[in-house]
Amino acid sequence: LHISVSFSLGFYTTLLLTQTPEHILTQTNNKTEILCEVKKEHKGVYWYRWSQERQHFEFLVFSNTLGRATYGTNVSQDRFSVHEVRSHSSCSLHISHLHPLDSGTYYCSISQSSQLLLGSGTQLRVVDALPLLPKATQTPVSKKPVPWVTRNKAASRKG
């Protein structure tokens, strides 16, 4: 999410919400989890997704401190779920049966004096096949011992 976009929409990124991990690369049909640590009092956590491809900021789900979830339009409750961790100080977003269209930057968020404070963001990329990492080319290590040049005292002695 570009800063210009975030400020024009009235969203503010803050260190009060720390997300882990920063990046996720996974395959179609896998599941994933994004953790959000909240360092401020709140009445519930919102989850949003920014799609660079579609230039679209989408509300996914809101979970209040009682654990009740409210879902955004067309958001599948079968695939998206929110879990509270450690007495409301953290929560996690679980997404199952991942699809490439789920790719985007995910933000947890809390409401603070009519503003939405955004977390640090987690970039999720879902692909049909993971890219193969090139194997490191190793130079063959010579097994031969390094010959040490030793001087024979007798041979070096002049007659």
Automatic annotation (TrEMBL):
A GO biological-process term: regulation of immune response
Domain Ig-like: 21-119
GO MF, one annotated term: MHC class I protein binding
Topology term for the membrane: Single-pass type I membrane protein
Keyword vocabulary terms for this entry: Adaptive immunity, Disulfide bond, Glycoprotein, Immunity, Immunoglobulin domain, Membrane, Signal, Transmembrane, Transmembrane helix
PANTHER family from the UniProt entry: T-CELL SURFACE GLYCOPROTEIN CD8 BETA CHAIN (PTHR11292), T-CELL SURFACE GLYCOPROTEIN CD8 BETA CHAIN-RELATED (PTHR11292:SF7)
Pfam families: V-set
Lineage: Eukaryota, Metazoa, Chordata, Craniata, Vertebrata
PROSITE patterns listed in its UniProt record: IG_LIKE (PS50835)
UniProt entry tagged with the keyword Disulfide bond: yes
Underlying gene: Cd8b
Localization in the cell: Membrane
Domain of life: Eukaryota
Organism: Horornis vulcanius
GO cellular component, one term: membrane
Gene3D superfamilies associated with the record: Immunoglobulins
This protein's name: CD8B protein
Signal peptide limits: 1-18
InterPro entries cross-referenced by the UniProt entry: CD8B (IPR042414), Ig-like_dom (IPR007110), Ig-like_dom_sf (IPR036179), Ig-like_fold (IPR013783), Ig_sub (IPR003599), Ig_V-set (IPR013106)
